[in-house]
């Protein structure tokens, strides 16, 4: 089995409210390089860890973790819509292995995913169904949330399962780092918004357009400095990325949910996708990681980063 990892921030604002052309070109070149790397690796299985933003998962029944046995992307903002090519038997076996490791993961035969999954799949794989993909949802916006430590344990259990497969596996983590887009919260929502958070599946095209317009206009205000949204936090971002590069799992376990919100913003909890992906890689043995890009991009409301990592076992076997 060979295994590599690619982690990346996502933002649905790409293509709606872009930074200056030099920065956009920088990110596009980076994304093209990631795609080329993945093509060269030619994965036989992709496991993607990502959050949802009240498009597929709602408070009518909000799991902390969910493995998709069948999944469709809804196509919010400019993200691709359509089915993912999920290898059902492997997804089921993975769920059993995770449950056997005492992580109570949910299972979905009709998972709906949004730009959190779809953007990463498009960037890395060139589409939603070009490779077999198992989507793993991690709750990152809907309090109460499980701890970062639990995401590490989820990733570890999945990594140990993957180690038993004789396949080339690509691990993907999509989300973060510091950012606080205008995602509503149930605690202080009016009845109409609360209903949307509890049971807002498949909104009307008008409701979807209004939501997207609110985010774009929030990004304009955020960029101009006239916003109550929590600012990006490059120092916190770099520290988190360094923790992952070093594999400092004690530091991960020490990250409280309150500290993540305070330092990184309400959507910084998406770092859980990175934590799970790195923990899955770590379950296979020591790894070597590199931070390929970091820049706070206010136009996208994103502490925007990409990292790649390889199992040292893979490096050794290639070098031998
Ligand atoms: O779901 C939305 O409407 C907005 C999500 C968003 C906005 C900005 C940065 C991100 O990472 C997001 O997921
Ligand atoms: Fe997000």
From TrEMBL:
<comment type="subunit">
    <text>Homotetramer.</text>
</comment>
<keyword id="KW-0408">Iron</keyword>
<dbReference type="GO" id="GO:0047070">
    <property type="term" value="F:3-carboxyethylcatechol 2,3-dioxygenase activity"/>
</dbReference>
<feature type="domain" description="Extradiol ring-cleavage dioxygenase class III enzyme subunit B">
    <location>
        <begin position="7"/>
        <end position="304"/>
    </location>
</feature>
<dbReference type="Pfam" id="PF02900">
    <property type="entry name" value="LigB"/>
</dbReference>
<feature type="active site" description="Proton donor">
    <location>
        <position position="115"/>
    </location>
</feature>
<dbReference type="GO" id="GO:0019380">
    <property type="term" value="P:3-phenylpropionate catabolic process"/>
</dbReference>
<keyword id="KW-0560">Oxidoreductase</keyword>
<dbReference type="GO" id="GO:0008198">
    <property type="term" value="F:ferrous iron binding"/>
</dbReference>
<comment type="similarity">
    <text>Belongs to the LigB/MhpB extradiol dioxygenase family.</text>
</comment>
<feature type="active site" description="Proton acceptor">
    <location>
        <position position="179"/>
    </location>
</feature>
<protein>
    <recommendedName>
        <fullName>2,3-dihydroxyphenylpropionate/2,3-dihydroxicinnamic acid 1,2-dioxygenase</fullName>
        <ecNumber>1.13.11.16</ecNumber>
    </recommendedName>
</protein>
<comment type="function">
    <text>Catalyzes the non-heme iron(II)-dependent oxidative cleavage of 2,3-dihydroxyphenylpropionic acid and 2,3-dihydroxicinnamic acid into 2-hydroxy-6-ketononadienedioate and 2-hydroxy-6-ketononatrienedioate, respectively.</text>
</comment>
<keyword id="KW-0058">Aromatic hydrocarbons catabolism</keyword>
<comment type="pathway">
    <text>Aromatic compound metabolism; 3-phenylpropanoate degradation.</text>
</comment>
<dbReference type="InterPro" id="IPR004183">
    <property type="entry name" value="Xdiol_dOase_suB"/>
</dbReference>
<keyword id="KW-0223">Dioxygenase</keyword>
<dbReference type="InterPro" id="IPR023789">
    <property type="entry name" value="DHPP/DHXA_dioxygenase"/>
</dbReference>
